[in-house]
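Input record (one chain):
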Amino acid sequence: MHRRLITVGLTVGAMLIATPTSAVDQMAERRAECLGWMMSGYPSGLEETACTAQFDLPSPFLFKCARAERRGYDDATQRKACASFLASASEAAERGYLRRRAAR
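The corresponding structure, as predicted from the sequence alone:
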């Protein structure tokens, strides 16, 4: 009986020690997945919402517009949408706040 408790205790201890590493690995994998989707396009709006909230990522539309600007737009509507999006992003940057740095 005593051996069995020790074995169970060691097993539980090993599981507790192993869990943070696997959780970190899963988080790193998820971040890499989200970054890939950010560059190439999300598979769904749910994934986009989850990734951008979880990792504070910029809109993938920014990258789509940057690619289109270099390679050409599909149509006038896409060009107008990108111009509007980038104008809004530029205005937001102008209104953005500067973080204070600690004095040295």
